[in-house]
Specification:
about 30% helix, six-stranded parallel sheet, globular, alpha/beta, Alpha-Beta Plaits, about 230 residues
Length: about 230
């Protein structure tokens, strides 16, 4: 995949490196030459430019870019301006960083596809969410092993866990499933929450809207998710 990351601070730089290391093409942009120079040997491409300037931004290979991530954190104004600019240029998928609730509200109003919160989420988790099909969330247990939440592949809906033989076929374990459950909320309104179902049994029948909680090596999980 091809990513464009705007803002090469701690989070943006870390994410750019991880995505590059996973075999993706990454263009990193920042207005600071020092930050650009620090990453020029670590990611695919680096450019020193002002991401709020429409003329220079329009010259980027946006049609060939799968995901644009605005990771600017220190300047909310620049973040919003850059986000609005990329939105107006109709990029395929736009993700932007929110600094506080008000900033998040503005980003939602602009119509970004997803909002990231670096203070709560690591670059490692976002790298998995961006690179692995169907991943909702992940937790890295070590350099090689992770817990990953992923959507049930359509082809497995209606089948029992024992019949899928995950352990032998994919070398990963289904620890549990999470189901979307409707509850009665405040003021009589209904809410949909994710409810953990407990340890998954061999007889459990998977449903299409279920979320799988998988354990295994990063390599095996990636192989499974990118091939269903």
């Amino acid at each position: 995949m091809k990513f464009l990351i705007v803002g090469l601070g701690n989070f943006g730089a870390s994410l750019a490196e991880k995505l590059t290391n996973q075999g993706n093409e990454v263009i990193g942009i920042d207005s600071s030459m020092a930050r650009v120079d620090a990453l020029k040997e670590k990611i695919s491409h680096t450019i020193c430019m002002n991401a709020t300037d429409e003329y220079t931004v329009s010259g980027l290979p946006l049609k060939d870019t799968d995901v644009v991530i605005v990771a600017i954190g220190e300047d909310q104004g620049a973040n919003v301006m850059a986000t609005a600019l990329f939105k107006n240029l109709n990029v395929k998928r736009l993700i932007s960083r929110a600094i506080n609730p008000l900033h998040e509200m503005v980003l939602k109003a602009l119509g970004v596809d997803e909002i990231l919160h670096p203070e709560e989420e690591t670059a490692e988790r976002w790298a998995k969410k961006l690179c692995l099909i169907g991943v909702i969330d992940s937790f890295e247990l070590s350099e090689d092993y992770s817990l990953v939440e992923a959507n049930v592949p359509t082809m497995y809906a209606g089948k029992k866990i024992k019949d899928l033989d995950f352990r032998n076929k994919f070398n990963i374990l289904i620890l549990t499933t999470i189901k979307k459950t409707v509850i009665q909320g405040n003021l009589g309104k209904t809410e949909i929450i994710n409810k953990v179902q407990g340890v998954a049994s061999a007889e459990l029948v998977l449903e299409e809207d279920d979320i799988l909680v998988l354990y295994g090596s990063n390599m095996d999980i990636k192989k499974f998710l990118n091939n269903y």
